[in-house]
Design goal:
alpha+beta; Deoxyribonuclease I, Chain A; 6-stranded mixed beta sheet; 12 strands; 23% helix; globular
């Protein structure tokens, strides 16, 4: 075998492909902060925001997905995210008005990106809803090569499954076209439960799903996967879900 071919084979074995070598870690952190003040069993006021900031600072996520927050919480969490781009969508009442935290602030879902680039925001209410007083919504921001979204789904299993499928359908064309997509949230659906719908049933190619062993999940497409970390938290009723991905 020619010496140059032997050398090429050795180099290929020792060094990863150029695309792999250039891949960069991309971290997504999902938090449900129970910060409306309505559910007193898990509401801990300012201590929740302080703990969230500690977790954010330690993990340094590129995308932060937030559920059960008040709109003004974004300003308190943004410095730990480098004051990057953020957006918020309130949950809605049946009459279309925003759900409110006990302090009067709008209540819903938020996103904070470490990048200062300005994204194009789109949000909405799911067509399928349960009979409760909170109509579930999603919020997304789209950049040149990335779409990031956050959502919080119904507590009624079949309704949550319909909403989950709708969220994936909303993003699938972008993913099929090659755009990197991450969708985080409290889906109120579990993986392989003994009873009720399985969150994996709303997953379709090219997406994959990573979860916290309970109801929080991150769906992603056109990115690599490194690891999942479940982060214990004292001041809310959900752990943090930290999913480490890679982007080319």
């Amino acid at each position: 075998m020619p010496i140059y071919l032997v050398l090429a084979l050795v180099l290929a074995a020792v060094f990863p492909a150029a695309a792999e070598a250039q891949a960069q870690e991309f971290r997504v952190l999902q938090l449900n902060l129970c910060h409306s003040g309505v559910n007193t069993s898990c509401y801990n006021g300012a201590a929740t925001i302080q703990e969230a900031n500690t977790v954010i600072t330690a993990r340094q996520p590129h995308v932060l997905s937030l559920n059960e927050i008040c709109r003004n919480d974004l300003a308190q969490l943004a410095p730990a995210m480098g004051n990057g781009f953020s957006t918020f969508a309130p949950a809605r009442r049946p009459d279309g008005t925003p759900v409110r935290c006990t302090n009067g602030d709008e209540y819903g879902n938020g996103l904070i990106f470490r990048s200062p680039a300005t994204g194009t925001v789109f949000s909405g209410q799911y067509a399928t809803q349960d009979s409760g007083s909170e109509k579930r919504v999603y919020v997304c921001a789209e950049f040149a090569d990335l779409v990031g979204c956050s959502t919080h789904l119904s507590t009624a299993g079949n309704v949550a499954m319909a909403q989950c499928k709708a969220a994936i359908a909303l993003l699938r064309d972008r993913a099929v076209a090659g755009k990197q997509v991450v969708l985080g949230g409290d889906f109120n659906l579990k993986y392989a439960p003994l009873f009720g719908p399985n969150v994996q049933d709303c997953n379709v190619a090219p997406f994959f799903r990573k979860g916290d062993g309970s109801v929080q999940h991150v769906f992603a497409a056109n990115v690599g996967f490194v690891r999942t970390e479940v982060v214990g938290m004292r001041n809310t009723d959900h752990p943090g879900l930290h999913v480490v991905l890679t982007r080319p």
